[in-house]
Amino acid sequence: MGRHRTKKPYLELLDKPVLAHTIGVFDQSTVVDAIFVIVGETDFDACRSAVIEPYDFQKVAGLVPGGETRQDSVFNGLKVLPDDTDFVVIHDGVRPFVTDEMIFTCLGAAADWGAAVAAVPVKDTIKITDGDGFVVDTPDRSQLWAVQTPQVFRRDLLIEAHRHAQRKQIQLTDDAALVEQLGLKVKCVMGSYGNLKITTPEDLILAEALMSKTTMRVGIGYDVHRLGENRKLILGGVTIPYELGLIGHSDADVLTHAICDAVLGAAGLGDIGQHFPDTDAAYAGIDSLILLGRVKALIAADYAIQNVDSTVIMQRPKLAPYIPSMRQRLAEILGISGDQVNVKATTSEGLGFIGEGKAAAAEAVVCLSELR
After folding, report:
1. pLDDT tens digit string along 115-161?
2. Cα torsion for 290, 296, 300, 304, to the nearest 10°?
3. pTM, full prediction
4. How far apart are CA 92 and CA 165, in angstroms?
């Protein structure tokens, strides 16, 4: 791993060691009864203190000292299994993207065939070369699979395969190959191209990107209000000089209301009328930026606002001079930067109530990211 002096299972992957991520999947699995972690003899204390104890795993039954080779290490694990064990699931500690579905699928296939492995069809053409790097053969890619873990076996079958290999002094790179040496079939079941084995520094970077990916949610909002005399025209929290203002229970800021609805919609929290009904005297004449601040507070624990795109539809007055101030006010309330808030203005080309100067409307789209 180049500059990384820490062994791969104990490297930090976002918030915890790689091995802790991996064990966590098996610990939560409904088809796993007990977990034995095969560990280098000099790593017992590190594994306990960094991986096992901090995360309160319920199914870790013990740490088992490894051997000189992977094959020896697995056999050490087989020797400590309870006598009533029917199936053994073997998994690389540095494959943290394993899923319960993969475990379940492999177990089901092993119940039918005795041995099953997660694998994926290879995407690239494979070349066989000689000792000097020259191509000597190109196998048919359609029959090639890249084998992963989990690999699941009947316990008695796997022990027999290991003992056969010991008698024949065979050393192979995975347990499926040992079973194949017995002349038995191993079933390949579809794994995942995302079931990454962290082996190189580049793998760790990719794993961080995969694990930090967030769910994005999008909401839309719309509001419309009539224009009338003796009212202030307020849009995006900015008061705009004009002989008419928007009529409503609050300050009737259609732009801010549309953004409120878009945020609530993206979070699946209903609409502005549900949270701030116009039948409640507490909201009479209220500054809509206050309402936007409350909407922001409703989602703050679960979502971050990535961006807002909005449009005011109004025949008069010209709004372009006021848009920078709108963007800044809205961004301040939402706790984001000004370049994350976009405000546009257009007319309805003289059509309808808006075109006749009797009303104004606003539309907004908001993108939220789920906080992990």
Report:
1. 999 999 999 999 999 989 999 999 999 999 999 999 999 999 999 99
2. -140
3. 0.63
4. 21
Which tokens sit at 97?
């993207």
Nearest to 51 by CA among 96, 19, 15: 19
Taking residues 306-327, report their average pLDDT.
96
Neighbour count for residue 216 (Cβ, 10 Å): 12
What is the DSSP code (8-state) at residue 11?
S
The continuous run of DSSP H or E covering 76 comes out as helix 70-79
C-beta of residue 243 within 8 angstroms of C-beta of residue 294: no
Strand 341-346, strand 238-240: pairing? unpaired
How many CA atoms lie less than 13 Å away from 13 in the CB half-sphere? Answer: 31
pLDDT given for residue 212 in this prediction = 76
CA distances from 136 to 68, 132, 139, 158, 170 (A): 33, 11, 10, 34, 26
- Report the distance separating Cα 182 and Cα 158, nearest Å: 10
Reading the block at residue 43, the tokens are: 């790593």
Angle at 119 between CA 33 and CA 71, to 5 degrees: 65
In angstroms, what is the C-alpha Rg of the chain? 31
Give the tens place of pLDDT for each residue, 209-255.
Answer: 888 776 789 999 999 999 999 999 999 999 999 999 999 999 999 99
Beta carbons within 8 Å of 47's beta carbon, 6+ residues apart: 9, 10, 19, 37, 39, 63
- Predicted local confidence at residue 4, as pLDDT: 61
